[in-house]
Amino acid sequence: MELRDFLALPHRFRWGGVDGDDCMTWCASWIRECIGVDPAAAVRGTYSTEEGAHRLLASRGGLVAYADSQLLPLGFTRTDSPKVGDVGVVSTTTPTGTTQSAAINFSKTWAMLSPGRVVAKRADLVAAWRFPV
Question: How much is the pTM?
Answer without folding.
Answer: 0.94
